[in-house]
Amino acid sequence: MPGLEDLYREIILDHYRSPRNRGELPVPPATKAEGFNPLCGDEVVLYLDIDPDSETVRDVKIDGQGCSISQASTSMMSSAVKGKPVDEARKLIRAFKALMSIHESKLEGESDGSDLTAELEGVRLGDLEALQGVVKFPVRIKCATLAWNTLQQGLDERESVDA
Amino acid sequence: MTDVLDVSRVKADFPIFERKVNGKPLVYLDSASSSQKPRSVLDAMEHHHRHHYANVHRGIYTIAEESTAAYEGARAKVAKLLNARATGEIVFTKNITEAMNLVAYSWARKNLGPGDPVVITEMEHHANVVPWHILVEERGVELRWIPITDDFQLDLTDLDRLLDGAKLLSVTAMSNVLGTLNDVRLLSDAAHAAGALVNVDAAQAVPHLPVDVQAWDADFVGFTGHKMLGPTGLGGLWARAELLDAMPPFLGGGEMITDVRFDGFEPNEVPWKFEAGTMPFVEASGLAAAIDYLSALGMDAVRAHEKQLTEYTLRALEERFEDRLHIHGPRDVDQRGGAISFLFDRIHAHDVAQVLDEDGVCVRASHHCAKPLMRVLGVPATTRASLYVYNDESDADALVESLAKAEKFFAV
After folding, report:
1. Which positions in chain A have a beta carbon within 8 angstroms of at least one beta carbon in chain B?
2. Are B375 and B39 in contact (CB under 8 A)?
3. Which residues of A touch B358 (CB under 8 A)?
4. Please, which residues 4-43 of chain B have a Cβ atom closer than 8 Å to chain A?
5. Residue B180 burial (CB < 10 Å; 0-12/13-18/19+)?
């Protein structure tokens, strides 16, 4: 039986108590995305300021409320993608979901995910790996992935507007 | 203090308490969500399966007649428990959600049209909200809400205005979040005076208090079996016979007809008109055993025990956590049942429940299917401990100790 210390690692509690990048950004130029976890009422509001020339995440601000896992994951996500090129942020999303044992593109008859492994080679999750313990608590996986799904939604919406 | 129930004996009747969780005794405080089952309920269902399993109302052989007798016997026990005027006033459904939908789909679709007001309250479970939202979209009925006061009671200041012209008042007898007990008789009288019928969500009331549908003077009362020591998959609706007679069928299929032709059908008599297809009759034997179990304890004793234990638990929470823990519900145990919702200032409901689980303490952390109420309370979720016949002071003590651990763990 996994213990609480597997779930609530010190770095997670640190992000929960002192969340990074709290606030709002003017929309536009920033993109706003909202994510909800209907199970527990957790809410993530994400503001993304992306430099169109370099396709880089210039600034990130987050708002909302939720449990320690969802709020820490959101804070860690914001630190991880700030200053990163958009395609790298997308790679981080896939790497984080893989960490949570979620392999979305794997359909019947497809490969065993070795393509994903190759693609994600060299992606460094750093502090985010502290969230790996969440996998042992299946009901909390949604708390950890909420921020990342919201990020994906924000990036997709921006691209569909640009297109 | 001496308990009106001998809880150690009650607990011994529930096999699940023989197990441990994380090496600790199971402290089950989530009965408002679903209750545990005594051995007699499990045995009754096994006996039905082993000795007279056959479909009801169809076979003319011995075991089919025995099976049918058991099913109709369960209906009679429900009727007696609720003090219905007749056994035929009890319609079995899948759960109370289906019972509420039966009222909405059958009675309301026949009787309500654009602009007809339906009055509900801010403390309703989604099962008594969403069926009416669907009718708002589909039929253009008007949904009105009775607000709640700062002390977690219905605010009846504007009741007359809210009921003016109303066709239906649909209200919970006991809030699954706040524990608040509503004065159903007072509300019934006011609704009837305004010409409205009264539908009662008694999911939390029937398992925990003596319920008398005639004393309530209600028109419809829904309940569910799995919260009152019975199995999942079986609940029901009590309604006045003349209402059931006039209501069109809800689900069509086998058993709910007397004749089917190429050009139509004749519905069966009440209550079978509303029981299409093979019903969970084995579960009905389980529910009958659950009612026998509760009746042997006595519903007055069940209520007295829970009142006493709720007082003990509230006091223990107050003494240990003072104003750091907010209890969302009335303080006076005469005005409430044993569903206790609470929240620490800076700790999310989920995180609290996670720490409690490590100690084998089972509580619910969510919006409790009452999101409109969560909006009124201004919180995304609460943690809820709910008490029943197998809980005693040791469970309340375990809750408090585990909460102290959670508070320490998440201390800023």
Report:
1. 1, 3-4, 7-8, 13, 17, 39-43, 65-69, 137, 140, 143
2. no
3. 3-4
4. 22
5. buried
Q: Using an 8 Å Cβ cutoff, are B207 and B388 in contact?
A: yes
Q: Which two tokens stand for residue A59?
A: 């600034």
The span from the CA of B25 to the CA of B27, in Å, is 6
Q: Among B274, B295, B316, where does a domain finish?
A: B295
Q: Classify B335 in phi/psi space as left (phi over 0), alpha (psi -120 to 50) or beta.
A: alpha
**Whether residue B149 is found in the same domain as residue B200:** yes
Distance CA B234, CA B69 (A): 17
Of B192, B194, B246, B193, nearest to B219 by C-alpha is B192
Q: Is B365 an interface residue toward A (CB < 8 Å)?
A: yes
Q: What element of type H or E holds B319?
A: helix B299-321
Same domain, B144 and B207: yes
Give the relative orientation of helices B62-82 and B39-51 as an angle to the nearest 10 degrees: 150
The CA distance from A129 to the nearest CA of chain B, in Å, is 20
Q: If we measure between CA atoms, which residue out of B180, B412, B405, B208 comes closest to residue B306?
A: B208
| Residue B405: closest C-alpha in chain A | A4
* B401 shares a domain with B269: no
Please report how the helices A68-81 and A10-17 are oriented relative to each other, as an axis angle in degrees rounded to 10: 90
> Which residues are CB-neighbours of B264 under 8 A, at least 6 positions away?
none
Residues B310 and B276 in one domain: no
Q: How far is residue A117 from each of residues A53, A74, A96, A122, measured CA to CA in Å?
A: 30, 24, 12, 10
pLDDT tens-place values along chain A, 163 residues long: 678 888 888 888 888 888 999 999 988 889 999 998 877 678 899 999 999 999 999 999 999 888 889 999 999 999 999 999 999 999 999 989 988 887 555 454 445 555 556 666 667 777 888 888 888 888 889 899 999 999 999 999 888 876 5
- At A158, list the tokens: 């921006």
User: Which residue type, as a one-letter code, is found at position A62?
Assistant: I
Q: Which of A29, A22, A66, A25 is nearest to A44 (CA)?
A: A66
**Domain A4-162, classified CATH 3.30.499.10, yes or no:** no
- The DSSP secondary-structure symbol of B106 reads I
B88 in reach of chain A (CB within 8 A): no
Return the pLDDT at A128. 85
